[in-house]
Amino acid sequence: MKKGCLIGVALLLSLMISPAAPAAAEYRLAFVDLQKALNLCKAGQDAKEKFSKKVEKAEQSLSGRQEELKKLQEVLEKQGSMLNEAALKEKKKDYEAKLRDFKRLYDESQEELKAQDNEAVKEILSELVRTTQSYGKEKGFTFVFEKSESALLFADEAMEITDEIIKIYDASYAQGGKAATK
User: Fold this and answer.
1) What pLDDT does residue 86 have?
2) How far apart are CA 96 and CA 72, in angstroms?
3) What domain count does the chain have?
């Protein structure tokens, strides 16, 4: 009885597995490197350039305050021994307050720049994903994997569609300044 049951289970399993084997050959797979696409597409390069300009502007804005702090510190070091205790204490207090303000402005500037950069990257990546989805549907792919996020341990480079995605995205971006997806 046990032998007949085992044979029945084995037969059932073989029937369940058999039809799936030919279907596996029908899958079309590809992968895209979204980080590479982000770095090489026109929108990504434009965003990097804008970000660099914002960083430069923020640095210029903060450099005046930084110079002021350096001068105050030099005055404290040079005149510290000549000033009476009350005047020295007042100058140190002024310096420390300006230093705190500078650090606060610096931190706020960094946070704002980071948030703006993250928002730009997020927008471009979502457009690249939509472009990849449209491309995948159009070309009949069953699966399109993201190279760095999907635990893709090996992939034949011939299966990579990143360059095609960049071309499509750049063409769309050039037409309207922003990628228009189907």
Assistant:
1) 85
2) 10
3) 1
Write out the residue range of the structural domain in which residue 105 sits: 25-176
Kindly state whether residue 16 falls inside one of the protein's structural domains: no
State the first-to-last Cα distance of the chain, in angstroms, to the nearest integer.
61
Q: Give residue-wise pLDDT tens across range 123-140.
A: 999 999 999 999 999 999
145: Cβ–Cβ under 8 A, 6 or more apart, which residues? 29, 30, 31, 32, 152, 155
User: Which residue type does 133 have?
Assistant: Q
pLDDT tens, position by position, 41-73: 999 999 999 999 999 999 998 998 889 889 888
Of the listed ranges 3-12, 25-34, 64-73, 78-87, the one predicted with least confidence: 3-12
For residues 28 and 140, is the Cβ–Cβ distance under 8 A? yes
CATH number, domain with residue 163? 3.30.910.20
